[in-house]
Amino acid sequence: MFDKYLIDAASLRNTGPADAPTGFAFEAKLGYYRGLGLSMIEKLDIAIDGEALAREAVRFDETCGAGELPPLTLDEMETAYDRRWPFGAPATILVDYPGGFPKGEHALSLREQLRVSYLPFPSINSDEKTVRLD
Amino acid sequence: MSKIRRGVSLYSFQEEMFLGQMSVEDCVAFGASIGAPGVEILPEQNMPTFPNITDAQVGEWQDMLARHGAHFTCYDMFLDTKLRKGELMSDEEQVASIQRDLALCNRLGIQNMRVLIFVRPDILEKCVPFAEKMDVHMGVEVHAPWHLEHAWILRTIEVADRLGTRHLGVLPDMGIFMKHYPPEFRARFERQGARPEVAQFIVDQHEQKIMCEYTIYEVAVKMGGNKAEIAMAETLRHAPYANPKRLKDFAPYFRHIQAKFYGMTQDCEDPTIAYDEVIPELVKCGWEGTLSSEYEGNRWIQDVMEVDSREQVRRQHEMFKTLIAKAEAGLETV
């Protein structure tokens, strides 16, 4: 319902030392008309130019770097029963990617798979943005 | 004074709120400005700290509503039975979660709670004593493709009758009265590649109320439908036109209505939902409650145009004013 708004393309930046980035990060929103507990966010699949990155490379921080709570891996999110991703609120998605985001123009995609209790199937929400980080 | 009151669900403004273009106060102020001061809230959407809501926050909401001459009408609950991977919540946990919502509903001074349709009637039965204590009516959302006389809904009615409680019933979503196929759906599927003649076939089939599986098979197999065409045909599974004349039989069981719509014409008419049949029925049976706008057209048009939820809601309320006045005038002349 909000697919095209999920990735905040302007927020993309490298992480780690400026001369030797260890990954990248960007802000994203939850593709749902309400907030959801983190344990029900089953997957945050990230791909660059259609090439899927490993689940283990992704971490999530609903405080957007405020440092109140530690970023979680997707496996850790499965049991984060007391944390939520509120409606319409950006959260930081951190990706381990040695060397940082590849230079030049690329397609960055995000696919959120949610476990919504009243739906018989998972809720899938996808966005892809053409981004450039030089 | 009309027995039918008008209000808005904050769900209607999800596009603008998601994008940070409207605050909840903007939505409340807008509703009040068009004579729809009843506010339906989704705490899990509109209260970022949910489920932890302090008394100070409750006070802030009450003050905000008062500033605009508005009031709460309904609380939309959710139930995360799949909170944990691989196992459903126990019955006791489900009851506890619903009781948590009933208590918050009571603290907010709200007497109607929209219960998701998938919640089991036997779980709700266990919640009735607490709902009575909190003085909150639990209304099971009658949402398409279910309808008022669906056997699943009748189970809730049976529980309410058996217990003789006024705190359990239903809460109809007007999407069950989809008389005509939504033009917003059709246009979106055509943009996604549905051929106009196939789209027209699907619309015609819906118009004739042909059972959806015939149409889906025709489109998918006989017409060799593409992805968009098959997806469009499959929407028919969720596009029922229930009989508005049955509303009166269920009127004792509901006190709030989710006035679903997908788009209004510039002339303030709904091309899809049969409000021109629904509202006379509600007036005729003396139903008392709130018609609460639930605009859901944003997701069908956002790919090609700016969504203007305010204008859509305004038009719906123009229609409501006209239809209510006409139906009430009709009563007086009888």
What does this structure look like?
The complex is a heterodimer of chains A (134) and B (334). Chain A has 134 residues and is mainly beta. Chain A is built from one helix and eleven strands. Chain A has one helix at residues 74-77, and strands spanning 7-15, 23-28, 36-37, 41-48, 51-52, 58-61, 72-73, 84-85, 91-96, 105-114, 123-132. The N and C termini of chain A lie far apart (32 Å). The relative contact order of chain A is 0.31. The mean pLDDT of chain A is 97. Chain B contains 15 helices and eight strands. Chain B has an eight-stranded parallel β-sheet. In chain B, α5 packs parallel to α6 and α13 crosses α15 (309-333). The longest helix of chain B is centred in the C-terminal third of the chain and has 25 residues, at 309-333. Chain B is globular, with a radius of gyration of 20 Å. In chain B, 48% of the residues are buried. The interface between A and B is medium-sized, with 23 and 27 residues.
What structural category characterises the helix and strand content of chain A? Answer: mainly beta
Assembly annotation = heterodimer
State the major sheet of chain A: 5 strands, antiparallel
**Could you name the ranges of chain B where pLDDT drops below 50 across 5 or more consecutive residues?**
none
The percentage helix of chain A is: under 10%
Helix and strand run of chain A: EEEEEEEHEEEE
Sequence of secondary-structure elements of chain B: EHHEHHEHEHEHEHHHHHEHEHH
Helix content percent band of chain B: 40-55%
Sheet with most strands of chain B: 8 strands, parallel
Tally the helices of chain B: what do you get? 15
The number of distinct structural domains of chain B comes to: 2
Largest interface (CB < 8 Å): A-B, 23 and 27 residues
Mean pLDDT of chain B: 97
Q: With helices defined by DSSP (H or I, 4 residues minimum), what is the helix count of chain A?
A: 1
Instruction: Tell me the span between the first and last alpha carbons of chain B.
Output: 19 Å
The count of strands of chain B amounts to 8
What is the approximate shape of chain B? globular
Strand content of chain B: 5-15%
Counted up, domains of chain A total: 1
Please state the average pLDDT score of chain A.
97
